[in-house]
């Protein structure tokens, strides 16, 4: 059950520094999408407060029958390593996708088991600075090369001017995923018992497909994290020097 890229069983870690960044929303969106495509899913909940394993955010029937939650409680000073994450899903017979809820810094050792790492963020200055801390945490864990992109969460559409500017910064640096979860509040309601609408499910499936094929964003992340502390206009100008345009078609 190797986490190396190219493995038969993808291990997707969704990581952010601290809570409230949309990690659980992204984990369940990916899990629901994988199940909808006929895959058996193991969700490893590494959160210090295991919300997923406690049932919060569980998808409503008919989704959820092929999703198994494996809780890994993290106590004070306890750091779980990649081997424990792998062992935790060994009893999930026939798991075809493994998704790890990986809040940082607790989740850093688990990144060694991942084949793909996803970093969620909202589009405001405070969230982007938290996102930059997450990038550094992933880098310290030696997993930056596994990052396939940043997914934008909890962002109403149309974007405000400030949100649009931050999205441009991420896009010009080449670190954002095309598919976002734009209305995370609706996702939370859907996954909490209301069922997933066709639109929500389509978003999730497109996100999963993009995550599984996206290349490493390590170079763009290293460039961008150095300029996040600057005003957005300066960050945008610097980021625009780094990369050409690209477009993902689901």
Q: What is the annotated CATH architecture?
A: 3-Layer(aba) Sandwich
Radius of gyration: 17 Å
Count of distinct structural domains: 1
How many DSSP-defined strands?
6
End-to-end span in angstroms?
28 Å
Which class best fits the helix and strand makeup?
alpha/beta
Mean pLDDT: 75
Task: Please give a quick description of this structure.
The chain is α/β, with parallel strands linked by helices and 250 residues long. The protein has 8 helices and 6 strands; from the N terminus they run E-H-E-E-H-E-E-H-E-H-H-H-H-H.
Q: How would you sum up this structure, described in words?
A:
- With 250 residues, this protein is of the alpha/beta class.
- The chain has one domain: 3-Layer(aba) Sandwich (Rossmann fold), CATH 3.40.50.
- The protein is 37% helix and 15% strand.
- The chain has a six-stranded parallel beta sheet.
- Helix 3 links the parallel strand 5 (116-121) and strand 6 (147-152).
- Helix 4 runs parallel beside helix 8.
- It is globular.
Topology:
Layout: E1 11-17, H1 23-36, E2 41-45, E3 67-71, H2 82-88, E4 97-104, E5 116-121, H3 125-140, E6 147-152, H4 161-173, H5 184-194, H6 198-213, H7 218-225, H8 232-239
Parallel strand pairs: 1-4, 1-5, 2-3, 2-4, 5-6
Helix pairs in contact: 1-6, 4-8
């Amino acid at each position: 059950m190797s986490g190396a890229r190219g493995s038969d069983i993808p291990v997707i870690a969704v990581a952010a520094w601290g809570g409230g960044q949309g990690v659980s929303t992204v984990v369940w969106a990916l899990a629901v999408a994988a199940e909808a495509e006929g895959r058996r899913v193991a969700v490893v909940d590494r959160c210090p407060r295991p919300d997923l394993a406690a049932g919060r955010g569980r998808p409503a029937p008919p989704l959820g029958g092929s999703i198994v939650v494996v809780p890994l409680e993290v106590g004070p000073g306890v750091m779980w390593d990649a081997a424990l994450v792998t062992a935790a899903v060994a009893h999930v017979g026939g798991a075809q996708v493994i998704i790890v809820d990986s809040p940082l810094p607790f989740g850093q050792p688990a990144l060694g088991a991942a084949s793909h790492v996803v970093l969620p963020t909202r589009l405001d200055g405070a969230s982007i600075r938290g996102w930059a801390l997450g990038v550094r945490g992933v880098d310290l864990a030696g997993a930056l090369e596994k990052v396939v992109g940043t997914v934008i969460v909890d962002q109403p559409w149309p974007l405000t001017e400030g949100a649009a500017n931050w999205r441009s910064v991420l896009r010009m640096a080449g670190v954002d995923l095309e598919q976002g979860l734009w209305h995370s509040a609706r996702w939370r309601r859907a996954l909490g018992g209301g069922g997933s609408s066709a639109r929500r499910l389509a978003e999730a499936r497109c996100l999963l497909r993009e995550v599984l094929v996206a290349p490493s964003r390590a170079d763009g992340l290293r460039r961008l994290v150095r300029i996040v502390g600057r005003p957005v206009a300066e960050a945008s100008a610097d980021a625009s020097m780094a990369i050409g345009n690209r477009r993902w078609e689901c």
